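step 4 of 6: structure.
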Amino acid sequence: MSPLLRDRRAIFGLVVLGVAILVALMAPLVAGDPIQQGDIVATRFLPPLSNDFHGTFHLLGTDRFGRDVWARLVYGARVSLSVGSLAVLVSVLIGVAVGAVAGYWRGWTGTALLGLTDFALALPRVVLLLLLASLWQPSAVLVVLVLGLTGWMTIARLVHGEVRALAVRPFVESAIGLGAPGLRVLWRHVLPNALTPVIVAAALGLGNAIMLEAGLSFLGLGVQPPTPSWGNLIASGRDTLVNAPWVATAPGIALVLVVLAATLLGDAVRDQLHHSEK
Amino acid sequence: MPLRALSRLVSAVAVVIGVVTLMFFLLHLAPGDPARLLVGPTATPEQVEAQRHTLGLDRPLPQQYASWLGRFVQGDWGISLATGRPVRGMLADAWPATVKLVGLSLLLSYALGILVGVLQASRRGWLDTALSIVTVTLFALPGYWLGLMLVMLFTYRARLLPAFGSAGFDADFLSGWERLADRLRHLALPLTTLTLIGIGGTARFVRGAMLDVGNAPFVAIAHAKGLSPTRVTLHHVLRNALIPVVTLLGLSLPTLFSGAVFIEAIFAWPGVGRILVEAVLARDYPVVMAATAVSAILVVAGNLLAEMLVGWADPRVRT
């Protein structure tokens, strides 16, 4: 058995993320239509675990338009999880590129890229997000790009450190000595050995990206209703905290569980790496 | 020391100028012609051209950039498109509220976070596990959702605390202690929310730093000398573990400020974050630009303070 699977944090993380992804993929099988509204007067504000007058069961109740909260949560998971992971993918691509180039070609290229990284790291991410999101029409694609463009810095610094350390190792020097061109050395010999800490950073970044996507959608700058995302679900529940607290509570708990799972999985993988180094 | 301080100051100014430059070019990249927006859809091409000339949009980009930077440095930040008020006045009114909220929450979350982290590192076992679960959960909580949950509990259910603004409508008629009490009641929920999310990250970091230092040889020597475990923890381990923690203080400022933007928006706290969110939603560009710049200035100034604190805490850095 892999040592990772003996870590309770890793098991929790894998199970929660696995269930969330599975439910999101099977959304049409496990939930009804997230946008369809029944008879608003008769079906709105139904508490969790109740049946409406059609006899339809509402696991998490209904919102103020009579829409099923569970269905919106499940379809929202599709949006939130895919936007979050695509954003992390963009961050990882930019971060690895910047970090690798800055670590391998020191000199003024490296200095300039590191300066850029430190500059971007010194700014509050949400402020940058809001600035970028205000300039274009809000959409899921914009959220992916904006989150990706503001999340690459920690990964760049990690990769930079790894690449710098690897560049002076004998196997890299011999590859250079054999006359391999710089890009090939970087791609074939250095990068594959520098990627493990990136996995940890990506797991932690995933939690953060999902949280920020929800935050942007919560403010009305992300995914636009009626398309459900966890953020705009929380926002829509904000107005009904008194009549129907479950509308804002349910997506929040889902969000916390997924972010927690990503964080714990990242922690577990990091500890594993540290142990194998020692 | 002066040379080091000078270089920090130069890089801080460079960050702020970088932000302003970034904003200028982003604004020019963005779709939509400000001149066309101002003159309206029925304007003739000549009128649009005249408006472009008035705004200086027909000049070459470097020239526009220079005059924009000049105006910005002099504090001429334009007029809000949404409210018609001068942007500088709006932000001058707002930034103390943000500094108050973020500063207090920074102090509280570090004090409590260090306490929890030290407790975890010195008493391993079930307490450590339980507190680890609590801190990682706090770390994973989105501030805007936690804020809503607290509003639901303390404002709507218990009817104990106000959820909006920094003072009641009758604040001007209160005096002395009552006024202070009113302020504190309004501060309670936003400060609690921001502090709770802050504690998680700090405690996790302090615990890690304490455990790292705990493995050092000088700790074993301190134990061997027969010092009490409490003394070793507080005087030998904690003191050394606090150095990276103080460094983290500066690095965590942008994150804390990010959290404050959401909290201010939720609790209608009259700070820079709320102005920024409202301006973004209203596409009020002069205000968005200025609020972004002010946020960057606040964060950079906080970073400088934290650096000075590191120099004070760790003599090795003072070169």
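step 5 of 6: annotate
 - Residues 176-214 of chain B form the longest helix (39 residues).
 - Chain B has a mean pLDDT of 81.
step 6 of 6: archive
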